[in-house]
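Sync notes, pocket subgroup
Present: LS, DG
LS reminded everyone that the earlier model was apo-only. Rerun requested with FNR included. Inputs:
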Amino acid sequence: MTTSAKEFRILALSGSLRADSYNTALLRAAGKLNPGPMSIQVYSGLGDLPLYNQDLEQGPPAAAVRDLHEHILQADGLLFATPEHNASIPAALKNAIDWMSRMPDGAGMTGKPVAITGASPGALGSVRAQLALRQILVSIGADVLAKPEVLVFRAHERFDADGMLTDEYTQNLLVDLLAELAGRIGRNA
Ligand code: FNR
């Protein structure tokens, strides 16, 4: 898809570092389903971030920290897909948010429209992780959409062997979520 000046730039962040992640596949599906007007970039650098340690703030930020910061600053909105690890968000995602929360305005997340989704093979569809993520993002002042809630439960039944989202119900929910995100960005612009 080509990018025009009128498109909103969406940065899509998966909380999973796994190659065959359902959550990353969900974000790829969002990129394909894109109802516009937006471009959706799936970010792949969360695994490169060092573990947050306040001592590291004495020196210049690591390249991976700067890269994520730049990507978030340049985005008009964010789309998170989080797995559920032990009833909360995975450490890699919390680590990234902790790093960004140390930047001015939460790396530009303060006031930025943010949509949340998540996938799990279990029956709860990452609901506890999504609630935890919402609480964290609200605490840094992100403009987190309340609805639609997109809980992708029994995720293994909704993707094919190539990681393509085949479930029409989930596809429609994703489109609704993206449309709501674009609407929120447009209203705030
Ligand atoms: C899990 N999983 C899991 N699932 C769930 O629904 N609730 C949970 O609390 C947990 N806890 C949990 C902890 C840890 C350490 C792992 C590795 C896994 C299962 C998890 O949903 C599953 O591995 C997903 O496939 C992870 O998402 P990705 O990597 O497919 O995006």
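DG: The helical segments are 22-33, 63-74, 91-101, 105-108, 127-139, 168-188.
LS: The longest helix spans residues 168-188.
Action: DG to write up.
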